[in-house]
Amino acid sequence: xxxxxxxxxxxxxxxxxxxxxxxxxxxxxxxxxxxxxxxxxxxxxxxxxxxxxxxxxxxxxxxxxxxxxxxxxxxxxxxxxxxxxxxxxxxxxxxxxxxxxxxxxxxxxxxxxxxxxxxxxxxxxxxxxxxxxxxxxxxxxxxxxxxxxxxxxxxxxxxxxxxxxxxxxxxxxxxxxxxxxxxxxxxxxxxxxxxxxxxxxxxxxxxxxxxxxxxxxxxxxxxxxxxxxxxxxxxxxxxxxxxxxxxxxxxxxxxxxxxxxxxxxxxxxxxxxxxxxxxxxxxxxxxxxxxx
Length: 292
Description:
Blueprint: E1 18-21, E2 23-24, E3 43-44, H1 47-60, E4 66-70, H2 79-92, E5 98-103, H3 105-109, H4 113-121, E6 124-132, H5 136-141, H6 148-161, E7 164-171, H7 179-192, E8 197-202, H8 210-214, H9 225-237, E9 245-248, E10 259-262, H10 266-279
Parallel strand pairs: 1-4, 4-5, 5-6, 6-7, 7-8, 8-9
Antiparallel strand pairs: 2-3, 9-10
């Protein structure tokens, strides 16, 4: 029996895949906008315990080919521990083609490129990476723990190691007061850092996070959907990434769902935003159907 520790989170793309909790919680767990793991103490799970669960999962789902390592940032594990876990997964799932996990810039910075290449050779192929914003002042306000240059360094390391990156940006993170610098500096970061996938979502704060989030802002005025789409349009219009990026804004929080490849489909997606802005609320996902 698999005894998952709840709450349990995974990216939308991992909905049909095996989920194995390599850790409980998040090693950083200080980001003010995030309440995902506030009820958990970061814990590294013993390899023997994981081996037993892998055996159960491989028996139930022998044809599974993708595994997501939860919770918050399993890449924080020591190299030897993670390498042993990857070997167990490869032995258990004969069709295994992808192992993915949430990761932070700190996780990549703590490891050398050779160590990351070693993990890539062991099967680690995709990391979900929260950029949130490229503005250093906002990164400090939300207690992300790194600045934009460190994020670029981390993303470059991942690229050199052959690990694909799926990054996220939070629209509305700076409120009305910081909307310009939020998008301006996020554009700079994305244009300087290699990644395979990029997604945007809209700021959403659970009740327990609102006070903690706003405490570091002198003033914070939330953006409405119209202003969020203006941020989205500004972001897309100036992106010129070093390699093509598969782009999505299909998170449950988004007012408007977009998909395409950058820069190939940039103009088409901007046209879709302009049309939604022209039509107004009727072109957007009803708020009752949104979540975070």
